[in-house]
Amino acid sequence: QQPVQSPQAVILREGEDAVINCSSSKALYSVHWYRQKHGEAPVFLMILLKGGEQKGHEKISASFNEKKQQSSLYLTASQLSYSGTYFCGTVGRGQNFVFGPGTRLSVLP
Amino acid sequence: DSGVTQTPKHLITATGQRVTLRCSPRSGDLSVYWYQQSLDQGLQFLIQYYNGEERAKGNILERFSAQQFPDLHSELNLSSLELGDSALYFCASSVNTAAGNTIYFGEGSWLTVV
User: Fold this and answer.
1) pLDDT tier at B79, thresholds 50, 70, 90
2) A91–B55 CB contact, under 8 Å
3) Closest by alpha carbon to B9, among B84, B105, B90, B66?
4) To bridge A36 with a disulfide, which of A42, A81, B17, B93 should be the other Cys (CB 3.0-4.6 Å)?
Protein backbone atom coordinates (compact mmCIF):
# COMPACT_ATOMS: atom_id res chain seq x y z
CA GLN A 1 0.00 0.00 0.00
CA GLN A 2 2.99 2.29 0.48
CA PRO A 3 3.67 4.29 -2.68
CA VAL A 4 6.95 3.88 -4.49
CA GLN A 5 9.24 6.84 -5.01
CA SER A 6 12.07 7.24 -7.46
CA PRO A 7 14.85 8.02 -7.45
CA GLN A 8 15.93 7.17 -3.92
CA ALA A 9 18.45 9.96 -3.93
CA VAL A 10 19.64 12.66 -6.28
CA ILE A 11 22.50 15.13 -6.20
CA LEU A 12 22.25 18.37 -8.12
CA ARG A 13 24.23 21.53 -8.67
CA GLU A 14 22.50 24.84 -8.03
CA GLY A 15 20.39 25.80 -11.00
CA GLU A 16 19.80 22.26 -12.22
CA ASP A 17 16.39 20.62 -12.51
CA ALA A 18 15.06 17.45 -10.89
CA VAL A 19 12.01 15.24 -11.15
CA ILE A 20 10.80 12.99 -8.34
CA ASN A 21 8.24 10.33 -9.11
CA CYS A 22 5.62 8.69 -6.93
CA SER A 23 3.47 5.76 -7.95
CA SER A 24 0.93 3.52 -6.33
CA SER A 25 -0.58 0.16 -7.13
CA LYS A 26 -3.90 1.35 -5.73
CA ALA A 27 -6.40 3.85 -7.07
CA LEU A 28 -5.68 7.25 -5.59
CA TYR A 29 -7.90 10.05 -4.50
CA SER A 30 -5.15 12.54 -3.85
CA VAL A 31 -1.41 12.95 -3.63
CA HIS A 32 0.43 15.18 -1.17
CA TRP A 33 4.03 16.35 -1.37
CA TYR A 34 6.16 17.28 1.63
CA ARG A 35 9.76 18.28 2.18
CA GLN A 36 11.64 17.42 5.35
CA LYS A 37 14.94 18.79 6.54
CA HIS A 38 16.97 16.57 8.81
CA GLY A 39 15.54 16.51 12.34
CA GLU A 40 12.68 18.82 11.45
CA ALA A 41 8.99 18.34 10.79
CA PRO A 42 7.81 17.68 7.24
CA VAL A 43 6.62 20.83 5.53
CA PHE A 44 3.66 20.82 3.19
CA LEU A 45 4.34 21.65 -0.45
CA MET A 46 1.10 20.89 -2.28
CA ILE A 47 -1.90 18.62 -2.72
CA LEU A 48 -3.16 17.30 -6.04
CA LEU A 49 -6.73 16.12 -6.20
CA LYS A 50 -7.81 15.69 -9.78
CA GLY A 51 -6.52 13.47 -12.54
CA GLY A 52 -4.06 15.31 -14.74
CA GLU A 53 -3.98 18.26 -12.40
CA GLN A 54 -0.81 20.24 -12.19
CA LYS A 55 -0.10 22.66 -9.42
CA GLY A 56 2.86 24.62 -8.36
CA HIS A 57 4.32 27.70 -6.92
CA GLU A 58 7.47 29.45 -8.04
CA LYS A 59 9.90 26.81 -9.23
CA ILE A 60 8.29 23.75 -7.67
CA SER A 61 5.35 22.13 -9.41
CA ALA A 62 3.71 18.73 -9.57
CA SER A 63 1.41 16.70 -11.73
CA PHE A 64 -1.00 13.90 -10.94
CA ASN A 65 -2.11 11.29 -13.42
CA GLU A 66 -5.06 9.65 -11.71
CA LYS A 67 -5.41 6.91 -14.33
CA LYS A 68 -1.81 5.83 -13.97
CA GLN A 69 -1.83 6.40 -10.20
CA GLN A 70 1.32 8.46 -10.58
CA SER A 71 2.51 11.85 -9.52
CA SER A 72 5.67 13.74 -10.30
CA LEU A 73 7.29 16.64 -8.49
CA TYR A 74 9.29 19.06 -10.64
CA LEU A 75 12.01 21.23 -9.16
CA THR A 76 13.45 23.74 -11.58
CA ALA A 77 16.53 25.90 -11.20
CA SER A 78 17.21 24.27 -7.86
CA GLN A 79 18.47 26.31 -4.92
CA LEU A 80 20.51 25.23 -1.93
CA SER A 81 17.37 25.53 0.20
CA TYR A 82 15.73 22.75 -1.80
CA SER A 83 17.95 20.17 -0.14
CA GLY A 84 16.07 17.70 2.01
CA THR A 85 14.00 14.57 1.76
CA TYR A 86 10.87 14.73 -0.34
CA PHE A 87 7.96 12.53 0.57
CA CYS A 88 4.84 11.88 -1.38
CA GLY A 89 1.78 10.87 0.58
CA THR A 90 -1.15 9.15 -1.01
CA VAL A 91 -4.79 8.82 -0.10
CA GLY A 92 -6.68 5.91 -1.58
CA ARG A 93 -10.30 4.87 -1.35
CA GLY A 94 -9.77 3.61 2.18
CA GLN A 95 -8.84 7.17 3.11
CA ASN A 96 -5.60 6.03 4.73
CA PHE A 97 -2.81 8.53 4.30
CA VAL A 98 0.48 6.77 3.61
CA PHE A 99 3.88 8.29 2.94
CA GLY A 100 6.33 6.98 0.39
CA PRO A 101 9.87 6.08 1.48
CA GLY A 102 11.24 9.47 0.49
CA THR A 103 13.73 10.85 -2.03
CA ARG A 104 16.83 12.49 -0.63
CA LEU A 105 17.78 15.58 -2.62
CA SER A 106 21.13 17.29 -2.17
CA VAL A 107 21.82 20.57 -3.93
CA LEU A 108 25.47 21.53 -4.09
CA PRO A 109 26.88 25.01 -4.76
CA ASP B 1 4.88 27.38 13.42
CA SER B 2 2.33 24.84 12.21
CA GLY B 3 0.01 25.26 15.18
CA VAL B 4 0.40 21.63 16.20
CA THR B 5 1.95 21.32 19.64
CA GLN B 6 3.74 18.23 20.89
CA THR B 7 5.12 17.54 24.34
CA PRO B 8 7.62 16.57 25.51
CA LYS B 9 10.17 17.58 22.87
CA HIS B 10 12.79 15.19 24.20
CA LEU B 11 12.45 12.14 26.40
CA ILE B 12 15.00 9.63 27.63
CA THR B 13 13.76 6.52 29.34
CA ALA B 14 14.84 2.99 30.13
CA THR B 15 13.79 -0.23 28.48
CA GLY B 16 10.61 -1.70 29.88
CA GLN B 17 9.22 1.68 30.86
CA ARG B 18 6.05 3.41 29.68
CA VAL B 19 5.75 6.92 28.28
CA THR B 20 2.96 9.16 27.05
CA LEU B 21 3.36 11.63 24.22
CA ARG B 22 0.89 14.45 23.98
CA CYS B 23 -0.40 16.34 20.97
CA SER B 24 -2.61 19.39 20.63
CA PRO B 25 -3.88 19.81 17.07
CA ARG B 26 -4.36 23.10 15.29
CA SER B 27 -7.44 24.95 16.36
CA GLY B 28 -10.42 23.57 14.46
CA ASP B 29 -8.68 20.45 13.19
CA LEU B 30 -10.63 17.26 13.82
CA SER B 31 -8.14 14.69 12.57
CA VAL B 32 -4.99 13.74 14.41
CA TYR B 33 -2.31 11.45 13.03
CA TRP B 34 0.68 9.82 14.66
CA TYR B 35 3.86 8.89 12.80
CA GLN B 36 7.09 7.23 13.84
CA GLN B 37 10.37 8.10 12.17
CA SER B 38 13.46 6.13 13.09
CA LEU B 39 16.93 7.47 12.35
CA ASP B 40 17.22 8.36 8.67
CA GLN B 41 14.09 6.37 7.92
CA GLY B 42 10.78 7.23 6.41
CA LEU B 43 7.58 8.24 8.13
CA GLN B 44 5.68 5.22 9.38
CA PHE B 45 2.00 5.85 9.85
CA LEU B 46 0.78 4.60 13.22
CA ILE B 47 -2.80 5.68 13.71
CA GLN B 48 -5.36 8.35 12.89
CA TYR B 49 -8.23 9.71 14.95
CA TYR B 50 -11.09 11.79 13.70
CA ASN B 51 -13.26 13.69 16.16
CA GLY B 52 -12.53 11.25 18.95
CA GLU B 53 -12.92 8.06 16.96
CA GLU B 54 -10.20 5.82 15.56
CA ARG B 55 -10.23 6.34 11.80
CA ALA B 56 -7.32 4.38 10.41
CA LYS B 57 -4.63 2.13 11.75
CA GLY B 58 -1.17 1.60 10.35
CA ASN B 59 1.86 -0.27 11.62
CA ILE B 60 1.18 0.35 15.27
CA LEU B 61 2.53 -2.22 17.70
CA GLU B 62 0.26 -3.79 20.29
CA ARG B 63 2.47 -2.22 22.97
CA PHE B 64 1.40 1.18 21.65
CA SER B 65 -2.00 2.75 22.05
CA ALA B 66 -3.52 6.12 21.41
CA GLN B 67 -6.66 8.07 22.02
CA GLN B 68 -8.22 11.38 21.16
CA PHE B 69 -10.05 13.22 23.88
CA PRO B 70 -13.23 15.35 23.66
CA ASP B 71 -11.14 18.50 23.47
CA LEU B 72 -9.44 16.87 20.45
CA HIS B 73 -5.99 16.60 21.95
CA SER B 74 -4.42 13.18 21.56
CA GLU B 75 -2.03 11.00 23.49
CA LEU B 76 0.20 8.21 22.26
CA ASN B 77 1.09 5.67 24.93
CA LEU B 78 4.18 3.53 24.46
CA SER B 79 4.71 0.68 26.90
CA SER B 80 7.28 -2.05 27.55
CA LEU B 81 9.73 0.10 25.66
CA GLU B 82 12.52 -1.49 23.68
CA LEU B 83 15.71 0.01 22.28
CA GLY B 84 14.19 -0.14 18.80
CA ASP B 85 11.41 2.20 19.85
CA SER B 86 13.87 5.07 19.92
CA ALA B 87 12.62 7.43 17.25
CA LEU B 88 11.11 10.78 16.44
CA TYR B 89 7.36 10.65 16.91
CA PHE B 90 5.33 13.15 14.95
CA CYS B 91 1.80 14.21 15.52
CA ALA B 92 -0.06 15.90 12.68
CA SER B 93 -3.53 17.31 12.22
CA SER B 94 -5.90 18.28 9.47
CA VAL B 95 -9.28 19.92 9.31
CA ASN B 96 -11.03 16.83 8.08
CA THR B 97 -9.74 13.68 6.46
CA ALA B 98 -6.46 13.65 4.61
CA ALA B 99 -8.04 13.33 1.21
CA GLY B 100 -8.21 16.98 0.31
CA ASN B 101 -6.70 18.74 3.25
CA THR B 102 -3.25 19.86 4.23
CA ILE B 103 -1.74 17.84 7.03
CA TYR B 104 0.24 20.01 9.44
CA PHE B 105 3.01 18.46 11.47
CA GLY B 106 4.19 19.23 14.95
CA GLU B 107 7.88 19.53 15.76
CA GLY B 108 8.01 15.97 17.03
CA SER B 109 8.93 14.23 20.24
CA TRP B 110 12.38 12.67 20.35
CA LEU B 111 12.25 9.43 22.31
CA THR B 112 15.47 7.75 23.34
CA VAL B 113 15.25 4.36 25.03
CA VAL B 114 18.41 3.32 26.87
Assistant:
1) very high
2) no
3) B90
4) A42
